[in-house]
Amino acid sequence: MITEAERSLAAAQAAAPIQQQAGFTEFELPALDLNGIQATLARDMPELDAAAAAQVQTHLAKLGPRGENWVGDGMSRIAGASAGHDGEACPFCAQSLEKSPVIAHYRAYFATAYQTLKSDIARRLQDIERAHGGDIPAAFERAVRVAMQGREFWQRFMEVPNADIDTAAVART
Question: 75 lies in which domain range?
Fold first, then answer.
């Protein structure tokens, strides 16, 4: 009862600052499309088994940076390089691909469906970065700080629940 009276007196004495003080506003981070992310990451390529993918990735790693792009570009050039040959020819060395130990794996790895999946994953990452990157974390931290300052002001006049928000932990998560 005394605390309530003290708050009422403080409110009466601070009428002008109270009228000028903004109220609390909601703050939140943009939502994550968890269902969409899970759906994208759950997609698989039945024609691309794990062993074949591992073999191709091991081979691509030996080629160094941008090796995957180089081989992928070459895969799209097989038809042109094979013109005038009996069967398919390597676009890099013009040798027959008939006995290549990796060409079938490359076909699966660089198939349209696989490229589509990779593009969809890259697009999801860009969407997440656009929605949660840039100034978004700083704006969230600023909104939380303003709310905490507002809490300090208003708690002199009324009961305001404490809301400790570790914005650094939220940003890391």
Answer: 48-109
Beta strands in the chain (DSSP E): none
Q: How many CA atoms lie within 13 A of 114 on its CB side?
A: 14
In a domain, 146, yes or no: no
Asked if residues 114 and 53 have their Cβ atoms less than 8 Å apart, the reply is no
The contacts of residue 86 (CB under 8 Å, 6+ apart) are: 96
Per-residue pLDDT of the chain in tens (173 residues, 90 and over written 9): 667 766 666 656 666 666 666 777 787 788 888 999 898 888 776 656 677 778 888 888 998 999 888 988 888 899 898 898 888 988 888 889 888 888 888 887 787 777 788 889 999 999 999 888 888 888 888 888 888 888 887 777 778 788 888 888 887 87
Please indicate, yes or no, if residue 81 is contained in any of the structural domains.
Answer: yes
Q: Is residue 156 part of a domain?
A: no
Q: How far apart are CA 155 and CA 102, in angstroms?
A: 70
Number of domains the chain is built from? 1
Report the Cα–Cα distance between both ends of the chain, in Å, rounded: 43
Tell me the C-alpha distance between 41 and 57, whole Å.
19
Q: Are 18 and 11 in contact (CB under 8 A)?
A: yes
* SS3 annotation, 121-145: HHHHHHHHHHHHCCCHHHHHHHHHH
| Domain membership flag for residue 173 | no
